Amino acid sequence: MMASTGDFLHAAIEEAQKGLAEGGIPIGAVLVRDGKIIGRGHNRRIQKNSSILHAEMDCLENAGRLPSRHYRDCTLYTTLSPCDMCSGTVLLYGIPRVVIGENVTFRGPEDYLRSRGVELTLCDSGECKALMTAFIDKHRELWREDIGE
Ligand SMILES: [Zn+2]
Fold first, then answer.
1. Ligand 1 center to 36 CA (angstroms)
2. What pLDDT digit, counting tens, does each position of 44-75 carry?
3. Rounded alpha-carbon distances, angstroms, from residue 129 to 44, 49, 93, 103
4. Strands 97-102 vs 119-122: parallel, antiparallel or unpaired
5. 11 CA distance to ligand 1 centroid (A)?
């Protein structure tokens, strides 16, 4: 049976939960090509004292160096609407589709991504929203820092 959008979003949520368990910000991502997960990651800014390891960046880094054409067959699943940095990376590598868990607690430049031809699917996931809402309530400063505020 082919894995579905829900299965891949679930894998991204598992990554977010892993991040939370490590004391990090609960955002996860997976990169899918030909129906298979080829990279997964979660936000590790706090864990790694990193300036750039948002979930999507960690996921792409973990997928390793790929031929440019491989990205054109990929879908990026992320639990939260991608920020300017992660959206820029999607555009740089020409990833054509992004599936977004939720865009209520944060909303990146979605209209710009669409204007550049990226197909976005919004899942409005209660699970994703609950993870972020609980984190932001407890750690507002860490969250502000993550989005450059
Ligand atoms: Zn980001």
1. 23
2. 999 999 999 999 999 999 999 999 999 999 99
3. 19, 25, 28, 8
4. parallel
5. 18
